[in-house]
Amino acid sequence: MKRFIGLFVFVFCLSMVADHVALAQGRGRGGRGRGGRGGQERVQRTPEDRAKAHVKRLDKGLELTKEQEDKAYHITLVFNKEMESMKDQRESLSREEMRTKMTAARKTMDSDLQKILTDEQKKKYAEIKQTMADRRKERRDAVSEKRKKRRASGENSRPESID
Fold this sequence. Notes:
Elements (H helix, E strand, L loop, with lengths): L1 H23 L22 H16 L3 H23 L6 H22 L2 H35 L10
Helix pairs in contact: 2-3, 3-4
C-alpha cells in the first residue's frame, strides 16, 4: 500500500511539474500559445517602438539623412499614435468606418513622407511599397488557398470551442 501511495504521489508531482513547464512556455492544454503561434506570444509594441522600426526599414531602403530620419520618425509616430487611438475606438466604430479612417491616416502619412524625400528616394519608396503590396497579396492568396483546400477536404478551418 505504501508503494502504491508513493507511486501515486510521484506521478502526481511529475504531472504538476510538466503542466507548470507547459504553462510557463505559453502553452496551455492545446499545445499552442496565445494567438495560435506555437508558443510565441505577440508582443505589444508602443507607438514609439513601431515608429523607430518603421524609420529603420525606411533608412535601410532609402538611405535617409539624419534630418529625414528625424522628420520620418515624427510622421510615423503621429500615425502610430492615431492608429492606437483608433484601436481604442473599435467598439464604437463600424468596420467600414475603421477602414475609412485607417486608410485616410495611411494616405496622410504617405503624403507627409513623400514631402521629405528626394526624387530618387520617392522612386525607391514607390518600388518598396509595390513590393510590400505584392507580398501581402501573395500571403493573402496563400491563406485563401489553404482555407479552400481545408473546406474541400471537409476539415474545419477553425476548431470548435469547448465550453
